[in-house]
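Hi V.,

Quick status before I head out on leave. The structure for the redesign project is tokenized and pasted below; the design run finished overnight.
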């Protein structure tokens, strides 16, 4: 399996014309549901609230959205059963693989499965304060760049974009923050010059409206060497041109990258009935919530990432097959990811009782993980 295999695959053009049947009696949702998402004010949180309203109007189900300031705090309530789903980001990939912040003994590879995702006209990139005069990624050298504790999706996103210009964290001044929201507050109040976000996040709009202003350094799609360096760090990115967001429009597009966001995930053991109903309910009600905010159009059927880096839950697959959106090629891709998940789980079972701790344990796990994946024919 190559890095390219793990990149976002959208539904075939033929699927774009499909419309899902909306049979309310087929959808059985509990009176109350809970998701975790990014902080209040972020696009992930706002989209979750908009979807929740549509579910309430149609099915009478109340959706409680629990904000989490970083990757760990969003996935912890899922693992403990406090929420059934997470509107997550790139950290889904890290948690699935058991890498980075999830390589410690208390985590390891998580049995995460997807239901669906959003791929809007926004980008996910490093935004900069306009007054910092950063016009290219190379200009980040020596600048103050935000690092979010427990925020793998953000920090590795920054690392990948720095790599685009041949830079590393050692080439910038790392400024630590406790959460995503705090990092962008730091942008607005002058503590830092650059941070990672979606171009449509509420936090970036605040920076745009501030005296500092906002600018997104481009990631030129013709720069093959730069993109190779970026994808070596973050293989879940794809080239994408944004036309919505702070400082971004159809007349002023941003040539950069993106990945599905939000990604609606749950645990592999989540009940089939609930997963099926949630998937069907959101897809069926899409016409009702899609115009609440521009980025909600990313939930459209034709924008689904059916061949991403994490497998789909069997009950979600059942629904997508029923409406004709799931192909044999997607099934083969999903089965490979399910097999990869089995390999990761078996490798973790053999190492989690190790007497090593801290960084020593992480190094041991990284070695065991790589060997197990290679033996099974996967790229670590």
């Amino acid at each position: 399996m190559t890095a390219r295999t793990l990149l976002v695959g959208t539904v075939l053009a033929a699927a774009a014309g499909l419309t899902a049947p909306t049979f309310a009696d087929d959808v059985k949702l509990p009176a109350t549901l809970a998701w975790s998402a990014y902080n209040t004010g972020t696009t992930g949180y706002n989209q979750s609230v908009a979807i929740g309203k549509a579910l309430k109007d149609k099915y009478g189900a109340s959706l409680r959205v629990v904000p989490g300031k970083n990757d760990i705090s969003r996935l912890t309530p899922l693992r403990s059963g406090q929420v059934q789903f997470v509107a997550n980001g790139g950290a889904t990939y890290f948690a699935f693989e058991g890498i980075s912040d999830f390589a410690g003994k208390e985590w390891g590879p998580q049995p995460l499965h997807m239901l669906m995702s959003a791929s809007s006209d926004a980008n996910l990139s490093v935004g900069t304060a306009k007054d910092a005069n950063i016009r290219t990624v190379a200009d980040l050298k020596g600048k103050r760049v935000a690092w979010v504790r427990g925020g793998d999706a953000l920090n590795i996103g920054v690392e990948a974009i720095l790599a685009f210009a041949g830079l590393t964290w050692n080439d910038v001044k790392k400024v630590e923050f406790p959460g995503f929201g705090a990092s962008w507050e730091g942008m607005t109040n002058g503590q830092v010059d650059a941070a990672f976000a979606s171009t449509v996040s509420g936090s970036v709009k605040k920076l745009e409206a501030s005296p500092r202003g906002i600018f997104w350094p481009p990631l030129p799609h013709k720069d093959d060497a730069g993109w190779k360096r970026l994808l070596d760090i973050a293989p879940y990115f794809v080239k994408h041109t944004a036309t919505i967001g702070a400082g971004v429009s159809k007349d002023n597009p941003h040539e950069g990258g993106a990945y599905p966001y939000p990604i609606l995930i749950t645990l592999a053991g989540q009940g089939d009935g609930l997963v099926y109903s949630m998937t069907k309910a959101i897809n069926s009600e899409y016409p009702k919530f899609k115009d609440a905010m521009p980025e909600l159009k990313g939930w459209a059927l034709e924008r689904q990432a059916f061949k991403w880096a994490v497998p789909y839950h069997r009950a979600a697959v059942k629904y997508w097959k029923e409406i004709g959106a799931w192909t044999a090629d997607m099934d083969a891709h999903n089965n490979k990811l399910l097999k990869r998940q089995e390999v990761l789980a078996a490798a973790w079972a053999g190492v989690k009782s190790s007497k090593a701790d801290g960084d020593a344990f992480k190094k041991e796990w990284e070695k065991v993980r790589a060997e197990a994946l290679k033996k099974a024919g996967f790229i670590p």
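Above is the designed sequence. Residues 239 and 257 are 4 Å apart (CA to CA).

G. will cover questions while I'm gone.

Best,
W.
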